[in-house]
Design goal:
Alpha-Beta Plaits; mainly alpha; about 375 residues; 2 strands; 19 helices; two-stranded antiparallel sheet
């Protein structure tokens, strides 16, 4: 972290402690009492630091790295099309591309970690409620979804699709996509959907929309049907690599062209997610398609909790599989649960009702939002890393 940002953040925290009266009462008990307030304060500091970072190092520059190098990490190195990648690589031959570690240790992923840590602390201490959750989702969306503090490129969708598309078409994993993939998957291996539930800007946007009072609202939908569509899309995404590549090879052969040339490689990089990639909305390219897709997302999110995540998103599909092995998760103590139903009523997602059922074999995605934890009057629901 640049020294100027570190000093400003430390001074800001110190000043807040003094103003709030917590400076002289800093004990574990007072921490628990004031944790919701501190969470909102931390959220404000995240936005503050996001604004400070460009001033200290031009949009996330690492120690010892020039602002130009940092900019190339997120926008100039890799874009959404294969020809653009090749053109960019040619333009930046004088400055070698950052490797995996250079792409991983950037400001954007640092603030990923900050939000995840705040979320885990709130979950473990049961100091989460609707309004704290709302504030942190707003922070996640502002930081990563407005394409202002941190550029969306590469988007979480690209972290999955482009990573493997370029491996199949170009024969290598690009470091910028590999780093994003690791930044999403590693937290998901530690706790259930810690990336999806606390960082993802599109997930945050859907959840913010879902908090708008609206009827009718469908909470207990058919998860098996939604998940079947999601997993089918993921399977088709992989299979089309081979099918499209073979068709393009046949077309190139018929045209007596070199299948290895860039134009044919570009056309073979097809993804079934392209027509339904709602992350494209967060590029804020205003037009007819933007308004149509945004309207669909708003309507669906008013009725359902995170519909894109449950029905389409490949990250959602992969992290749902990882939920089975992630040690950090929401657990229900059926010995003390009196089945009052308050958690089901207060929670925005369909998951807690299934987690309470010991016969459930495939529960819907748990985004570790924690709202069911805060709602439980008997403390029977907790987020823990052990049983």
């Amino acid at each position: 972290m640049p020294d100027c940002a570190r000093r400003i953040v430390i001074k800001a925290i110190s000043g807040i402690y003094r103003i709030s009266g917590l400076w002289h009462t800093w004990t574990m008990s007072s921490l628990g009492k004031h944790l919701p307030v501190l969470a909102v304060v931390a959220a404000v500091l995240v936005i503050l630091a996001g604004a400070i970072t460009p001033a200290c190092g031009q949009a996330g520059a690492r120690e010892g790295q020039s602002p130009q190098d940092c900019e190339s990490d997120t926008t100039a190195i890799v874009t959404d099309t294969v020809p653009s990648v090749a053109a960019t690589a040619a333009e930046t031959q004088a400055e070698p591309e950052p490797g995996f570690w250079g792409s991983l240790f950037i400001w954007k992923f640092f603030w990923f970690l900050v939000l995840i840590v705040i979320g885990v602390i709130l979950l473990l201490t049961r100091k989460i409620n609707r309004w704290v959750r709302f504030a942190l989702m707003a922070v996640a969306f502002v930081l990563f979804g407005l394409d202002h503090f941190f550029p969306l490129h590469p988007s979480p969708m690209c972290g999955i699709t482009k990573l493997f598309m370029f491996k199949f078409t170009w024969g290598e994993f690009f470091p910028v996509f590999t780093a994003l993939f690791v930044a999403m998957i590693v937290p998901s291996l530690i706790g259930r959907k810690l990336f999806c539930g606390w960082v993802c800007p599109l997930g945050a946007l859907q959840e913010l929309i879902n908090k708008i009072p609206f009827k009718p609202r469908v909470k207990q939908f058919n998860f098996t049907a939604f998940n079947s569509i999601r997993m089918a899309l993921l399977a088709m995404f992989v299979l089309t690599f081979f099918a499209v590549k073979d068709h393009i090879a046949y077309l190139a052969e018929s045209a007596e062209a070199d299948i290895g040339s860039r134009i044919w490689v570009a056309f073979s990089a097809y993804s079934v997610y392209d027509p339904v990639n709602f992350f494209e909305l967060l590029h804020w390219q205003i037009g007819t398609l933007f308004f149509i897709m945004f309207a669909v997302l708003i309507i669906a999110s008013l009725v359902l909790y995170r519909p894109f995540c449950y029905a389409i998103c490949p990250i959602g599909a992969i992290t749902w599989l990882l939920e089975k092995i992630a040690p950090g998760r929401v657990r229900v103590d059926l010995r003390t649960c009196d089945d009052c139903g308050i958690c089901v009523e207060k929670s925005p997602c369909p998951t807690i009702a299934k987690l309470k059922d010991p016969n459930t074999k495939a529960a819907p995605d748990c985004t570790s939002c924690g709202e069911c934890i805060g709602a439980c009057p008997t403390d029977s629901i907790r987020f823990t890393f052990t049983r």
